[in-house]
Design a protein that fits this description.
The complex is a heterodimer.
Chain A (H helix, E strand, L loop, with lengths): L1 E10 L2 E11 L3 E6 L6 H8 L7 E6 L2 E2 L4 H7 E4 L11 H11 L5 H11 L15 H13 L5 E5 L7 H14 L4 E6 L2 H7 L2 E6 L2 E6 L1 H9 L4 E5 L3 H10 L3 E7 L2 E6 L7 H11 L3 E6 L4 H14 L5 H12 L2
Parallel strand pairs in A: 3-8, 3-9, 6-7, 7-8
Antiparallel strand pairs in A: 1-2, 1-4, 4-5, 9-10, 11-13, 11-14, 12-13
Helix pairs in contact in A: 3-4, 4-5, 11-12
Chain B lengths: L1 H14 L3 H27 L10 H27 L1 H5 L6 H22 L1 H10 L4 H28 L3 H27 L7 H9 L17 H28 L1
Helix pairs in contact in B: 1-5, 2-3, 3-5, 3-7, 3-8, 5-7, 5-10, 7-8, 7-10, 8-9
């Protein structure tokens, strides 16, 4: 369980994290999503006790990250973004060293167990410097698991891996999510959608949205652009669709017609379907055009940038909160 | 305690696996051997004093201004640069425990070097009867001197990520602590001694040789000298700990 309340971190004049509030629940993978420099690593470092917060409160496994740092550290496994390892040690030697500092009993057995879990048991006696990037990433993960922590904090664990390794690691993280609280940061949106039960989107130190990936997508697709494919002349179809109430613009695109509704509250899909059927054409496809988090994310962060000029973002933030209950 | 020991074990093991430590040991022991045989030569040509004591430990303490930075430059600079400090500082171990473990490891390595020089003492016992009190003072002094100097050199490894810079600054700091004695002597040589003798004494209190050369090295064991080295060690370790803490909190 991770609970973050109004967490702020300043580096001199720069505010890296601005009053962030979210929670990560046990038995779930929580995705921490944002572009580089959004404040993901800073937040994670605060949660692991590496950095003190400037203001706000965070508890991990029931302990305050600032006042009870040692207890927090006992209950957290952390994989830093750069995966720092002692390259002169063997995999097993390194894990046993970490286990010893962590006060783990039966260190050798425990180290072999976690190596099995990350599928590296055959590299136990290899020097870390001789391992590939993907293997090192897994050694880092094994290190985070050595004391069977309640909470796992993984900072961009899939970065720099090849596609097969990325898939393996995602499977592993999802699997770990069943019996741990996992906080997993990434800047790849499809990854968050694939791996996480819950997504927290952070941008420029602010949380811009949070919720289940599906929930977020549904919420943001409401009032979004619509893709229409009709079995007829494009020009005639465009003319008809433009006349449908609730349609603002209709443009031709590679895979069909992209329709923008007049406002976010309007869903012109039923009306479009009716109009097409009345014309006697065949409706081939009618769906929200934004099908992945990429577009949603762009949408959200764009809104956030506008917030500096107008108050639009406040509305969208409120909406996001309403949508999450 | 177990945590300190875990760090200690890893670091000490690293010294015995790293080429730098072997190169340092090789160079030192070669130099000691040549120096010792040359000295025995000189002594045997002159009237041989029956209580002749090997003074290789004193030579070692003198060379420590060069050796200590080489041994300590890696300790924290490498962890900071490689980022391994980040993992470590999210483990349930305090900076002080971690730094103490590292310090004890380098001091243990030094102790091994010092212990090897016992060989010269054994040779000396074959040709004379050295004063065991003096030998004890000599070794105790050299051991404490080494510990203090290593702790001082280690401070710079916490300050900078650059090992070469850490080594240079370490050497400069130790050299200053050695040369302060010259400053004291210079002040003492000034005319009009009446008003400034206290200053001479004060300045000399900071110098390493003032607490070793004329006292421990010749078998005079004084509490103030032992306290000086212990205090120097404790102060340097404390400063190192604070620097690591502050650097982490600012990072």
């Amino acid at each position: 369980m991770i609970e973050v309340h109004d967490l702020t971190k300043n580096y001199g004049a720069v505010t890296a994290v601005k009053g962030v509030t979210f929670a990560a629940n046990p038995g779930q993978v929580t995705g921490f999503l944002g572009p580089n420099g959004a404040g993901k690593t800073t937040t994670m470092r605060i949660l692991t006790g590496f950095l003190p917060p400037t203001a706000g409160k965070a508890t991990v496994a029931g302990f305050d990250v600032f006042d009870q740092s040692m207890q927090v550290r006992q209950h957290v496994g952390y994989l830093p973004e750069s995966v720092p390892l002692y390259r002169d040690m063997t995999t097993l030697g390194y894990l046993m060293y970490i286990a010893e500092i962590r006060g783990v009993k039966q260190r050798r057995d425990r180290a072999m167990d976690v190596l099995k879990r990350v599928a590296l048991e055959n590299r136990a006696n290899s020097h870390i410097r001789a391992l590939s990037k993907g293997m090192r990433q897994r050694v880092g993960l094994a290190q985070a698991l050595i004391h069977d922590p309640e909470v796992l904090i993984l900072d961009e664990p899939t970065i720099g891996l090849d596609p097969i390794q990325v898939m393996e690691l995602r499977d592993l993280v999802r699997d770990l999510g069943h019996d741990h609280t996992v906080l997993f940061s990434t800047h790849i949106l499809s990854e968050a959608e694939q791996v996480c039960d819950k997504v927290v989107i952070i941008h420029q130190g602010n949380i811009v949205a949070q919720g289940a990936p599906l929930e977020l997508r549904t919420h943001l697709e409401r009032g979004g652009r619509i893709l229409v494919r009709v079995d007829t002349q494009i020009d005639t179809a465009l003319a008809v669709i433009r006349e449908v109430p609730g349609v603002n613009t209709a443009e031709m695109a590679v895979d069909g017609i992209i329709v923008t509704p007049t406002s976010a509250d309007v869903d012109p899909r039923p009306a479009i379907a009716r109009a097409i059927v009345e014309e006697g054409w065949n409706l081939m496809e009618l769906r929200p055009a934004a099908v992945n988090l990429e577009e949603i994310f762009l949408e959200l962060t764009r809104a956030d940038q506008q917030a500096e000029i107008s108050d639009i973002a406040d509305d969208s933030l409120d909406e996001a909160e309403v949508a999450n209950g | 305690m177990g945590k300190i020991f875990a760090v200690f074990k890893r670091e000490l093991g690293l010294y015995f696996r790293s080429p730098v430590a072997y190169a340092v040991a090789f160079a030192l022991l070669l130099f000691f051997g040549l120096w010792f045989s040359n000295r025995v030569d000189q002594v045997s040509q002159a009237q041989y004093p029956a209580d002749f004591v090997n003074n290789v430990p004193s030579l070692l303490t003198f060379l420590m201004f060069l050796v200590a930075p080489l041994l300590t430059m890696r300790l924290l600079a490498e962890e900071t640069r490689e980022g391994t400090l980040e993992t470590l500082m999210t483990l349930p171990i305090r900076e002080s425990q971690f730094i103490l473990g590292k310090f004890l490891a380098v001091w243990a390595y030094y102790t091994v070097l010092l212990a090897i020089t016992v060989v010269y003492h054994i040779i000396v016992t074959q040709i004379g009867v050295p004063d065991l009190g003096r030998v004890f003072g000599l070794y105790l002094g050299a051991w404490l001197y080494g510990g203090a100097v290593l702790a001082v050199a280690m401070v710079w490894s916490a300050v900078t990520e650059d090992q070469i810079v850490a080594a240079f600054l370490g050497a400069a700091t130790i050299l200053m602590l050695v040369l302060v004695e010259l400053a004291a002597n210079w002040i003492a040589s000034l005319p009009d001694q009446g008003t400034i003798t206290w200053l001479v004494d004060f300045v000399r209190e900071f110098s390493l040789p003032a607490h070793y050369d004329a006292t421990l090295a010749v078998g005079v064991i004084r509490a103030e000298d032992i306290l000086y080295f212990v205090f120097l060690m404790a102060a340097a370790l404390f400063i190192t700990t604070r620097i690591v803490e502050v650097r982490r909190w600012r990072s």
